[in-house]
Design brief:
209 residues, mainly alpha
């Protein structure tokens, strides 16, 4: 038997909830208008413009040419990877940014919110059952420290701590791959990694800090 106490939301949590509701409402309005327009075009375009189907004819040779060029492009990239590495990193960063924006927009729609709710709701309810979760969300006392928050979400078993530690080291070492911006990233990641390492090992190695 578990007992969960609830109270008024903290001001910042209430502001985030209100902002999220406004964002979801705006996305729903735009999504309804976009879906209606796209459905209308898909229904009316083939009727009004039968020749539009001919636009699909060049797709097959272009796709064939792209597949045939893949080994050539791959060889050029492998040979010139020291020169192309900054460009590849920039392209990957832009692609990841666009992917993150697209994912955020999708999960803001009705279908996206429904699909993520089944995954996130059990985790959210479990988090609210913890002392740290209640102190973060509800105005029931002093706010938890960043280390207490990290301790609430990090693993406690030995293998989980090992994986988390390797990920912390991997993120810290990845800054060497970013030209010029790596040092600025280190300044941001250093306090974060300190909090994470402290949350992982303060209970078993208090002298680590």
């Amino acid at each position: 038997l578990k007992l969960r106490l609830e109270g008024p939301y903290r001001p910042e949590i209430s502001a985030v909830i209100n902002l999220a509701n406004s964002w979801f409402a705006a996305v729903d309005v735009v999504s309804d208008a976009t879906v209606g327009t796209a459905t209308g075009l898909a229904r009316d375009l083939p009727k009004n413009f039968p020749a539009a189907k001919l636009l699909l004819v060049p797709v097959v040779p272009l796709a064939t040419l792209g597949v045939a060029a893949l080994p050539i492009v791959g060889g050029i990239l492998i040979i010139g990877i020291p020169f192309f590495l900054p460009i590849i990193l920039i392209v990957l960063t832009v692609a990841l940014g666009l992917g993150a924006i697209g994912t955020t927009v999708y999960f803001s729609t009705r279908d996206g919110r429904t699909s993520i709710q089944h995954v996130a709701e059990p985790t959210y309810q479990t988090f609210l059952m913890t002392n740290t979760g209640q102190r973060i969300v509800y105005d029931v006392g002093p706010r938890p420290s960043p280390q207490a928050l990290a301790r609430a979400v990090l693993p406690t078993d030995m293998m989980g701590k090992l994986v988390a530690s390797l990920l912390v080291d991997l993120v810290g070492s990845a800054s060497y791959l970013i030209p010029l911006a790596g040092e600025a990233f280190d300044l941001t990641w250093a306090p974060i990694s300190m909090i994470l390492v402290g949350a992982l090992y303060d209970d078993v190695m208090p002298n680590l800090k």
